[in-house]
Amino acid sequence: MKLATLCYIRQNNKILMIHRNKNKNDMHLGKWNGLGGKIKAGESPEECVIREVFEESGLLIKNPSLKGFITFPAFDDIEDWYVFIFCAFEFDGHLKTESDEGRLEWIEENSILSLPLWDGDRIFLKWLDNRNFFSAKFNYDKGSLIDYTVIFYPSVEGDCIS
């Protein structure tokens, strides 16, 4: 199983995306994605997303907000992927235009769905503005979305312990 993060950095009605166009063997080749990557041993999801965004973009995000969790069974036709989905609105640094994986670009929010995306991304990107945390499972077969399920958890105030 693989543990990973994915972050959508937002500013002025735009989202920072990466066009994965560098590596011939990249399972995401030709797709536009948020930024992120695999969690290293001993690393929290928050530490991972901050590190990965910095490595890919040169931006140091602050206060990433965990929006959801997605399970992708055998996404690469081999292993299950478990992905923590974040949004970030605050950052410092100087944006690179290229990374080892592709070209970085600020995309108008209302244009995102017209890009070459994974079919599941077209679904969950709409959930990023939802106040409720989501947990979803997207089933793919050889790169094609078969089906998905989602649970939205209501915002809860107060402690879990009475």
Indicate the topology.
Layout: E1 2-11, E2 14-20, E3 32-33, E4 35-38, H1 45-57, E5 59-62, E6 65-72, E7 81-88, E8 90-93, E9 102-108, H2 119-124, E10 133-141, E11 144-153
Structure annotation, total helices: 2
Order of helices and strands: EEEEHEEEEEHEE
Strand count:
11
Question: What integer is the average pLDDT?
Answer: 93
Task: Give a short synopsis of this structure.
Helix content is 12%, strand content 45%. With 162 residues, it is mainly beta. The protein has one domain: Alpha-Beta Complex (Nucleoside Triphosphate Pyrophosphohydrolase).
Tell me what you see in this structure.
Helices cover 12% and strands 45% of the residues. It has two helices and eleven strands; from the N terminus they run ββββαβββββαββ. Strands 1, 2, 3, 4, 6, 7, 9, 10 and 11 form a nine-stranded mixed sheet that branches. Strands 5-8 form a two-stranded antiparallel sheet.
Features:
mainly beta; 162 residues; 2 helices; Nucleoside Triphosphate Pyrophosphohydrolase; 9-stranded mixed sheet; 12% helix; single chain
